[in-house]
Every structure is written in structure tokens, then in C-alpha cells.
Automatic annotation (TrEMBL):
<dbReference type="Pfam" id="PF00034">
    <property type="entry name" value="Cytochrom_C"/>
</dbReference>
<keyword id="KW-0408">Iron</keyword>
<keyword id="KW-0479">Metal-binding</keyword>
<protein>
    <submittedName>
        <fullName>Cytochrome c-552</fullName>
    </submittedName>
</protein>
<dbReference type="InterPro" id="IPR002327">
    <property type="entry name" value="Cyt_c_1A/1B"/>
</dbReference>
<keyword id="KW-0249">Electron transport</keyword>
<dbReference type="InterPro" id="IPR009056">
    <property type="entry name" value="Cyt_c-like_dom"/>
</dbReference>
<feature type="domain" description="Cytochrome c">
    <location>
        <begin position="67"/>
        <end position="166"/>
    </location>
</feature>
<keyword id="KW-0349">Heme</keyword>
<dbReference type="InterPro" id="IPR036909">
    <property type="entry name" value="Cyt_c-like_dom_sf"/>
</dbReference>
<keyword id="KW-0813">Transport</keyword>
């Protein structure tokens, strides 16, 4: 039953809700959008003319020479979710026993991505360093979703660890 009083209550409720909404919006604008009056209380000075010292790149062979296989075993924990260290036992990725100086894409029984299968050469320490830094940049199209190891010391430690496993 829709009579005049019900219609009046409904229209009054809608108008009241709209009024609360508009007043709430106005109050929020006043609270959070204040105008700046005067100058800042403090100023942070920045020297634009000063040159930044360049970081000297260290040769990877030098870093690899001082790498620790023990620290590399700790870094390998990041890899152990997908790779195994037992020869012939593949996980999501190929086994890594003897990977240093092994032909790329040469593990029997593992289905490599087309990118890695078509790569030629061996997994030298330098190649592994480039791949471990960012696999998607070294081998675009690889199915390896690992983001990479940013620190050159971690990569060198991991390569030293993997090299120590092979007889």
C-alpha cells in the first residue's frame, strides 16, 4: 500500500541521506585539503653539483677465486626447490651434478625449452654467472621462472659449490 505518507517518508529518507553524504564530503575536503600558507617549516638542501663516484666493477674470475663452496651450499637452498644434485635425477629442472663445464641442454631425459636446447657451448663459470644473474635476460624464452641472484658473490659461491660436487 503506497499512500501519501509512505511516499513522503521515502522521499525524506533519500533527501536526508543525500544531505549527509554531501556534508560528509564537504567536511572531508576541509580536513584533508588544506592550503599552504607561508613558507615550509624546514628546507632540505640538495647538492646538485657534486659528482657520484663510479662503482668499480670487479672481474668475475677474481670473485670466483675467493668464492666459498660452503657459502654456496647455503645459496643452493634457493635452487633446491626445482633442482637436484644427484646425477640422473631430474626435478622440475635438470639435475645440477656436474653442471660446471657440461654442455648446455645435454641432460638426458629432461625436456629443455627451445631457447636452452638451441644454445651451444658449455656451462662455463662465466656462462653460469650470466645465467644466474637473470635467467630471462641470458636466455629469453626460457621456462625457468627464477628471478636471479643479484649479488655477484652469491653467484660465485654457488658456482664454486656446484663445481666442488663433480669428481
Amino acid at each position: 500500500m503506497l499512500d501519501t505518507m509512505t511516499f513522503t517518508k521515502l522521499a525524506g529518507g533519500i533527501c536526508g541521506a543525500l544531505l549527509v553524504l554531501l556534508l560528509g564530503k564537504w567536511m572531508a575536503e576541509e580536513l584533508y585539503h588544506t592550503e599552504s600558507h607561508g613558507e615550509a617549516a624546514y628546507v632540505i638542501e640538495v647538492d646538485d653539483g657534486e659528482e657520484v663516484a663510479e662503482v668499480e666493477e670487479v672481474d668475475f674470475a677474481t670473485v670466483l677465486a675467493s668464492a666459498s663452496a660452503e657459502d654456496g651450499s647455503k645459496v643452493f637452498r634457493k635452487c633446491s626447490a626445482c633442482h637436484k644434485l644427484v646425477q640422473g635425477e631430474n626435478g622440475v629442472g635438470p639435475y645440477l651434478y656436474g653442471v660446471v663445464d657440461r654442455d648446455k641442454g645435454s641432460v638426458d631425459g629432461f625436456s629443455y625449452s627451445d631457447t636452452l636446447a638451441s644454445m651451444e657451448g658449455d656451462w662455463t663459470a662465466e656462462n653460469l654467472n650470466g645465467f644466474l644473474e637473470k635467467p630471462s635476460s641470458y636466455a629469453p624464452g626460457t621456462s625457468m621462472s627464477f628471478a636471479g641472484l643479484k649479488k655477484v658473490e652469491e653467484r660465485a659461491d654457488l658456482i664454486a659449490y656446484l663445481a666442488s660436487l663433480d669428481d
